[in-house]
Amino acid sequence: MNLIAFTKSFTAKRKPHFRRLTGLFRLLVALTLMAATQAACAAPTSSAGTTRKQVYAAVIASATNAVKQEAKRRNWPDYQAKMNVFIPAEISQYPLCEGPLTVSLPGGARLDLNRIRYDVRCGDTGGWDVAVTVKPDIYLPILMAKETFERGHVLTASDMQLRKYNISSARAGYITNPDDIVGLTVKRRLREMQPISLAQLEAPTLVERGQQVVMIAQQDGIEARTMGEALKKGRKGDMIKVKNSSSERVVTAIVDGMGVVRMVYAPGG
């Protein structure tokens, strides 16, 4: 067999083998496309993702309204809220609810903006219910210390400034109105740019122990004043013992101002 005859013979044998490989490849591609199409057709129209979105939308609406009502009640100025929603994985087992979802707080529970728990219920025949948690991040202008203040410092309006802050992180509380704390004394060290809370402050001491004070007694529209000695220090509104300097009688009085107390009852009555 010469070279030309061998080449023709090899080419003739190769063509059927190549055609078989090409046919198998096409068949494999066709089967893959068919499987993908069947999987797409088998997917339910109300997927778990759609049910999750339905629950998410209902819970967001309820939480947003709750924050709005609380903002109105507390007179929050210029607040912003971001909702962090935690939906349990079991929602993937539930179909889309045809009717509106019912969103409510658990029986007897009080609204806690740090962590809101909702019961979400689908009222369809064979419906379902799921517990969802919402943790709002609420950004609000609150008062912060302009610099570090040590214990005993009396706050003035120039000692503080308003800065937007996530009040969900302000565990000790927060203050939005400077008038509420001007004149109060720092009870423990207050750091620069630290949110100010009432827990860190106290009313200033208006009467010191052993101090001479003005004692005011009032009865039937008649007011009498005398001098006395405070037997205990006190802040505004505190009840302390005071010894009348004239009669040396010890009586109970209420601290009313700097070096001034008001008698709970008139002396010598």
* Uncertain stretches of 5 or more adjacent residues: 3-14, 39-47
Overall, the morphology is elongated
Structural class: alpha+beta
Helicity level: 10-25%
Q: For the terminal residues, how far apart are their CA atoms?
A: 147 Å
Order of helices and strands: HHEEEEEEEEEEEEEE
Mean pLDDT: 83
Number of domain modules: 3
Rg, Cα atoms, Å: 39 Å
Count of helix runs: 2
What is the chains' assembly state?
A: single chain
Total beta-strand segments: 14
Largest pleated sheet: 5 strands, antiparallel
Share of β-strand residues: 25-35%
Structural overview:
The model is unreliable at 3-14 and 39-47 (pLDDT under 50). Helices cover 25% and strands 31% of the residues. It is an alpha+beta fold and 269 residues long.
Topology of this protein?
Blueprint: H1 3-42, H2 48-74, E1 80-86, E2 102-104, E3 116-121, E4 129-145, E5 160-166, E6 185-186, E7 201-202, E8 205-207, E9 212-219, E10 222-230, E11 234-235, E12 239-244, E13 250-257, E14 260-263
Parallel strand pairs: 9-14
Antiparallel strand pairs: 1-4, 2-3, 3-4, 4-5, 6-7, 8-11, 9-10, 10-12, 12-13, 13-14
